[in-house]
Amino acid sequence: MESRKSDACSPHTDSAEHALRAAVSLADLARIAATRIEPTAWDYYRSGAWDETTLARNEVAWRELEIHYRGMVDVSKRSMRTTLFGREIACPLIVAPTAMQKLAHRDGECATARAASAANLPMCLSSLATTALEEVRAATAGPLWMQVYISQDRGFTRDLVARADAAGIEAFAVTADTPVWGVRERDMRNGFRVPDDLRIVNLERPGGPTGHSGVGMGGALSWTIDPSLTWRDVELLASWTTRPILVKGLCRPDDVRAAFDAGAKGVWISNHGGRQLDGAPATASVLAPCAEAAHGRGAVIVDGGIRRGIDMLRAIALGADAVAIGRPVLWGLGAGGETGVTRALAMLSQEFDLAMALAGVRSISEIRALADGLVRVR
Ligand SMILES: Cc1cc2nc3c(=O)[nH]c(=O)nc-3n(C[C@H](O)[C@H](O)[C@H](O)COP(=O)(O)O)c2cc1C
Asked: Residues near 135 by Cβ (< 8 Å), separated by ≥ 6?
């Protein structure tokens, strides 16, 4: 694997700073990040599994949903504020867990955490982070959650959860769509593995496996996951902590019900950004029935292809309590570290505010009340 481009992590050049200032959309940030992140890492970030059908569908499916806006509503005063697990947040937007953020910028997860905290938005730290969870916690006073891959050694995961709990992690999201790693063929061709100067620091143990050998996620990181997980493991996780548990990576109403039955306080409708089972449905097309199954039982988060404030509006109308974004945060991080992530989060929340005004709605509860009167399949 090639070494990382030095300029991805060095102070900005004038032209990069100018490009960041001139960016007006998440797509602009992606274009800047593509020039600053080392190509093998960029491929790792952008990849989907196999033919990348689900990856492509995720974005398209939101756009298929028409917004039947209301006219002549006084929208001069509006609020995006909402509450998740008892904590008020600025708007229904969460930083999804993405692995190895130091591939995008040397400040990695801490830069993301600071930007999310300043915006009063939750960040969910990946199990596969390249920064110790305590260090990330110390970098932010904002809401910080952690994603969990349950290890073949349950005792190890129990200790990790206890460590995170003690550090002040506020919720845990256990990933259900990764019994084995999806095959991202770009990574196979590139010989992707964890670069020698980075570590999967929260999961590695002295003398244990690392991500420095093998090719692709299946070759380098198979030791981080367990194909034998069942709902019983969600019950187990819920018995280890009093913090809320979310089950991440669901697309079926029966699985949503099973998650709550196992003790979850939230479900996260997701197909891992199209990186696991190619052919899985777009999250936009399964959100409504899943939200119906969750009704009255806990929080509903959705991610996958959210690129605009209007996508946030669509998701809330279909029953989500909040949306999460994966790649757009990496684009911001790659384009400009903490400043870039701040820009990505601000772009999306400002667009959401304007989308609310243009649609004739003033609050999250008003979007929910209008539901399919506001957003319909074309
Ligand atoms: C580079 C990358 C790494 C990811 N790492 C993780 C991870 O460690 N754990 C996890 O549960 N999901 C992971 N995801 C999935 C995200 O949490 C999220 O579900 C997905 O990115 C949302 O789609 P989007 O990128 O279109 O916004 C990752 C996604 C990407 C793109």
From this structure: 109, 110
